[in-house]
Structure formats: structure tokens, C-alpha cells
Specification:
Elements (H helix, E strand, L loop, with lengths): L1 E10 L5 E4 L1 H9 L6 E7 L4 E6 L3 H14 L21 H10 L2 E7 L2 E2 L6 E6 L5 E10 L1
Antiparallel strand pairs: 1-8, 2-7, 3-5, 3-8, 4-7, 5-6
Length: 142
């Protein structure tokens, strides 16, 4: 088994922003001579998320509304209160939303390509932007 590592940086422009990064992940995988294996994809931050789903504008809008309902931006979070936390960003909602969505995924690699279904995309969600974010891709296989 061989192991390869790559990373790239994403820049967001909005406080909450959702992007299809499937091509970027595929480009990272294509850098290495792995035909079959697994790609472990990880964001190196706690206020953004990675997940697999269909990247369709109405669905992305629905997802955005869902996380806003589940975790409102201002809700008396202790992390945002200087009596309990030294965080100055007021971003508890982003940490909590990222915890619900997840920050890493694993995708099979078959014949040198990401093994995704017809409507599946690797999606990155910025939850505390605008910021620069590092995405790590570790490829294991033969």
C-alpha cells in the first residue's frame, strides 16, 4: 500500500458559503499513481464542514435554512460569552453547525477516479467566513 498527501486552500467571501469541491479533490487524487484505494478528505478547521450530497441550488438553500433553524446564529451560547470563553469571533453557531455536518469524509478511489454516484458531489461549507481554509487529502491504496 502507498500513502500520498496533498492539500489546497479555499477562500470564502461570505459568512456562510457552500461550494462544490469535487473537481479540486479529483485533481488532488490525479496527482498520484493510485488506481484503487481510499481518499481521506479533511478540513483543518472547526468552523467549516465537508459532506457528500447533491449540489443543486434549491437543495443547498434548503440545507442552509435547515442549519439556521437547528442552530440559530445568536442563541445565548456560552462560547460567545466573555464570562466563559476567550473567543472574540462570536462564532459558537459555526462550531455547532460544523459538528452536525462533519469535517471529514472518506471516498473510495476506483480505477484512479473518485467513486461517487451520479448526483454525488464533495461539498465544502464555510460557516464562519470570509476566511482561508486548508483542505487535506490523504490517498491510500495501490
Amino acid at each position: 500500500m502507498k500513502v500520498f498527501n496533498a492539500s489546497f486552500t479555499l477562500s470564502s467571501e461570505e459568512r456562510t458559503e457552500v461550494s462544490d469541491i469535487t473537481k479540486l479533490i479529483g485533481d488532488a487524487v490525479h496527482q498520484f499513481p493510485i488506481s484503487n484505494g481510499i481518499a481521506l478528505i479533511n478540513t483543518m478547521h472547526t468552523t467549516c464542514a465537508l459532506f457528500i450530497n447533491e449540489f443543486q441550488s434549491a437543495l443547498i438553500d434548503d440545507l442552509r435554512r435547515l442549519i439556521e433553524r437547528l442552530v440559530p446564529e445568536r442563541n445565548g451560547y456560552r462560547h460567545d460569552d466573555p464570562r466563559y470563553s476567550d473567543c472574540e469571533r462570536g462564532n459558537a453557531h459555526a462550531h455547532l453547525r460544523a459538528a452536525l455536518l462533519g469535517r471529514n469524509i472518506a471516498v473510495a478511489v476506483q480505477n484512479g477516479e473518485l467513486a461517487l454516484g451520479r448526483f454525488q458531489s464533495v461539498i465544502f461549507a464555510e460557516l464562519d467566513g470570509p476566511r482561508k481554509r486548508e483542505i487535506s487529502v490523504q490517498l491510500l491504496g495501490e
